[in-house]
Design goal:
It is a single chain. The strands form four sheets. A seven-stranded mixed sheet has the order 10-9-12-13-14-11-15. It has a four-stranded antiparallel sheet with strand order 1-8-7-6, covered by helices on one side. Helix 15 runs parallel beside helix 17 and helix 16 runs antiparallel to helix 17. The longest helix has 45 residues. It is 52% helix and 16% strand. It folds into four domains: 50 residues; 122 residues, no CATH class; 217 residues, P-loop containing nucleotide triphosphate hydrolases (Rossmann fold, 3-Layer(aba) Sandwich), CATH 3.40.50; 71 residues. The structure holds adenosine-5'-triphosphate. Adenosine-5'-triphosphate binds next to helix 8, helix 11 and helix 16.
Length: 527
């Protein structure tokens, strides 16, 4: 009891000493030193403040009475003097710019960069809902100071708020501003490589976190006074990833590496003087995963997807407008290119309608809904499309993938798919056992099962698309168990095998009939 009350009273004494500015003659050693130092500092501050105040007062009077030429001269001199005495440089990034107060891109990039830095290092964070209300953003507090280090150089960032009014009779608004402070010795490093680093990182973070969109152009979607764009958009939330793709592991890895290399090659494309774009041609039977692969690519690179319906494009001018409007990180998809453009002029109606039957079946499986049948061909010419792909984006900047899909690669004009236009040709084919195992893991969370051996054997004997496997693996009721789903896959494959056998038999009978018919014809001709 005694001890504790003693401590209390001594701390109270110290406080009262500091408050009354009385020298603690009775206190000893370090305490006396500290109090003396504090005393001196208070005295120094008081002197300095009064000197500054006096100077400011005199300065304002002098300024008011000096001719303006002299005043300018003095002000310049003062500016040089303060910048000589103050070794620190300050760069401001204002939130709103120009007469129309649009948000500055540099400000947004700095904000993204600092928010990430803050969320990685700081112990006190501010959480806000992002603009699209889908994710939480961790932000800096006002007058929060963050320290960053770049190649051994220290810099400081401060967030300030500026109150302003657009015009004198307008209500007062607030805008934010990030200030970057650094020693003038490092001016070159900071204004050169550091700011470039901040902008690049910030833009990348923003691209990763922004809500991506799926854009489509349809027949009625033309520009009007009320419409800003020829594209209509919805939020792109396709769950496909490379992990869930039933595909050869090697092929998968190759595509992933190709995509990453492309997305990091801005400098390379600039150096060789080519547009930063890459063409992919995906081909294979319906239901083998062409559309799913496109979604996985968009998710991997965080790109927007533009589903370009060529049959709805009136002419080349409209095509140009559509392509110019695409965002800087995007995949432009033209599905079933052989049905959209008259590439050969020889396509028969019959084989297209049989394609559409199979297609529609798979669209139901994938839940995509049936696309409008592409019976009409576009007025866009092949040369128009190629010219835009080759030339237009060189001027626009940004990274773009163009993906064409087809079920009939053999029908495409070789000029359309030559290297440089379609840089990578990817075949998607029927399901093999590795592909099946990926689907079984996706749909049933199974890595092995006693029925797998039978399925492997059947996959070697017959062809089935991943879409058909997926359809059968999908539990139809809540009580559907793995055994039931796998039995359905086996049943579907046995049916496909029987159909194959029947088809082959039919083909060999008709071949035999044709040969005997030919023989009879020759006999008749002879006689
Ligand atoms: N390789 C695959 N990996 C995983 N799922 C697949 C694969 N192929 C097909 N699927 C499944 O089948 C459905 C239909 O596939 P998708 O639409 O991608 O095929 P497609 O080749 O684009 O067909 P189409 O040529 O008819 O457009 C998908 O939603 C997906 O569930």
């Amino acid at each position: 009891m005694m001890g504790s009350s003693g401590t209390k009273s001594s701390s109270r004494d110290k406080k009262s000493l500091a408050m009354t500015n009385v020298s603690p003659t009775n206190s000893k050693g370090p305490l006396r030193k500290i109090t003396r130092m504090a005393h001196n500092m208070i005295h120094m501050w008081a002197t300095m403040s009064s000197t500054i105040a006096t100077f400011m007062f005199v300065w304002s009077i002098v300024c008011n009475h000096l001719p303006y030429e002299l005043r300018d001269l003095l002000q310049n001199f003062m500016h040089t003097l303060t910048s000589f005495l103050n070794p620190y440089i300050q760069i401001s990034f204002h939130e709103l710019l120009g007469e129309r107060l649009r948000t500055s891109g540099a400000y947004l990039a700095v904000e993204a960069y600092l928010n990430l830095m803050k969320s990685n290092t700081s112990k006190s964070l501010n959480a806000e809902l992002g603009k699209d209300s889908s994710n939480l953003v961790l932000t800096m507090d006002e007058y929060d100071r963050l320290t960053d280090e770049f190649h051994g150089v220290k810099v400081w960032w401060v967030l300030c708020k500026v109150v302003f009014s657009k015009r004198s009779n307008y209500p007062v608004q607030e805008k934010k501003c990030y200030k970057l402070i650094f020693h003038k010795r490092y001016r070159e490093t900071i204004t050169g490589s550091y700011l470039e680093h901040v902008m690049r990182e910030g833009k990348e973070i923003r691209a990763r976190h922004r809500q991506r969109k799926l854009y489509t152009n349809s027949a009625g979607n033309h520009l009007s006074h009320y419409k800003q764009s020829m594209w209509s958009d919805i939020v792109f939330e396709h769950p496909a990833t490379f992990e869930t793709m039933a595909m050869d592991l090697e092929k998968k890895q190759e595509i992933i590496e190709d995509l990453f290399t492309f997305s990091k090659s801005q400098d390379f494309y600039a150096r060789i003087g080519k547009a930063w774009k890459r063409g992919y041609l995906l081909y294979g039977p319906p239901g083998t995963g062409k559309s799913t692969l496109i979604a996985a690519m968009a998710n991997l690179l965080c790109y927007d997807v533009y589903d370009l319906e060529l049959t709805a494009v009136k002419d080349n001018t409209e095509l140009r407008q559509l392509l110019i409007e695409t965002s800087r990180k995007s995949i432009i998809v033209i599905e079933d290119i052989d049905c959209s453009l008259d590439l050969t002029g020889k396509r028969k109606k019959a084989d297209k309608s049989s394609d559409n039957e199979t297609k529609n079946k798979h669209k139901e499986v994938s839940g995509k809904g049936q696309k409008e049948e592409k019976s009409t061909r576009s007025n866009v010419t092949l040369s128009g499309l190629l010219n835009f792909i080759d030339g237009l984006w060189s001027a626009c900047g940004g990274e773009r993938l163009i993906v064409l899909t087809t079920n009939h690669v053999e029908k495409l004009d070789p000029a359309l798919i030559r290297s440089g236009r379609m840089d990578k040709h990817i075949e998607l084919s029927h399901c093999n056992f590795n592909g099946f195992k990926v689907l079984a893991k996706n749909y049933l969370n199974l890595e092995s099962h006693r029925m797998f051996d039978r399925i492997q054997q059947l996959l070697e004997e017959t062809k089935i698309t991943p879409a058909d496997v997926a359809e059968n693996l999908m539990p139809k009721t809540f009580s559907d168990e793995a055994d039931k789903c796998l039995s359905r896959v086996i049943e579907a494959m046995e049916k496909a095998k029987e159909a194959d056998v029947a088809k082959k038999l039919k083909e060999s009978i008709s071949l035999e009939r044709d040969t005997s018919q030919n023989g009879d014809d020759k006999e008749t001709a002879k006689t």
